[in-house]
Amino acid sequence: MKRTFLHGTARWLAGGCCPCLLAGMLLAGGAAQAATPARDLDLQAHRGGRGLAPENTLAAFANAMALGVTTLELDIGLTADDVVVISHDTALNPDHTRDATGAWLPRTGPTLRSMTLAQVQGYDVGRLNPASNYGKPFASQKPRDGERIPTLAALFALVRERGDGKIRFNIETKVDPTRPDDTAAPESMVHALLAEIDKAGMAQRVTIQSFDWRTLALVGRWAPQLPRAYLTTARTLRDSRWTLGLSAADFATTPLLVQAASAGGNAPVIWSPAFNNLTAAQVRQAHALHMTVLPWTVNRRADMARLLDMGVDGLITDFPDVLRDLVREREAAPPAGGG
Ligand code: G3P
Ligand code: CA
């Protein structure tokens, strides 16, 4: 099968935000994108590649770009003053956060939504807490003391400064329908995210992903040409609050559920499942439904090879160096059957 991994183009039109203003931000599709060789894979650095550098920091994203990944995977939240910041956690995480005195947070800190950007950036997220088990799988991570939770605008600026005209962004909205008080509402978050993407002129290079499919429905309405990635895992598939009220039990397979949730429009649709239980039959079905398949978070080389053999379109990994080397080796000596 011939596949390209860089999805369709999308370009913001001038216009404002909020549902009406966002109507003016709708994307104009169509402009041709540089051709991508068939069989290219989307090599995504999860949180910038947290196996190598402190997660979701500018240091990690710069490192990932230097490695030659195709996409930076990242997570976002909104501060109290409505700034889009890059963080996996909705509250400060003691596993990798120190206060202004250099002391590790003793427990989970305040939510990002309860702090201004200035307050958020008073903390250092450039090193793993050695007392925490969280960092054990990432013992090779190179610390960068002084790194702050960055704004999305700062990441876009970094990419521009580096003159990188190709790197893509897979941006995850961290909203939890079961914990509405922890974050901004989906509408506010998507509104702010689309405005930031628009301001930076990055719409042609962005995919928006979420476990909370309410945010993807909003993107479908307000920016219908943007690729959307439907994240799934066993936990969210058991609770229809994550899946737009659709019950997974009513669908024979997860790709059929994603197809129902994403119906309408022409934007590329990505199914992004937890990698563990993914099967070749599911990959084939998703492809037949015109979806791209992008599993997460694949850190062992053997799992990477197995998934590539299944025909996935890319992988999200904390160790982009391992994946890059594997892909190069397979290009030099393709596996039997063309995997
Ligand atoms: O891209 C999907 C993956 O990032 C989801 O997992 O928890 O690391 O955001 P998480
Ligand atoms: Ca993520």
From TrEMBL:
| Annotated keywords | Signal
Q: Which domain of life is it from?
A: Bacteria
GP-PDE domain location is 41-327
The residues the entry assigns to the signal sequence are 1-34
CDD domains documented for this protein: GDPD_SpGDE_like
Keyword Signal attached:
yes
Q: Which PANTHER family match?
A: GLYCEROPHOSPHODIESTER PHOSPHODIESTERASE (PTHR46211:SF14), GLYCEROPHOSPHORYL DIESTER PHOSPHODIESTERASE (PTHR46211)
**This protein's name:** Glycerophosphodiester phosphodiesterase
Q: Which organism does this record belong to?
A: Variovorax humicola
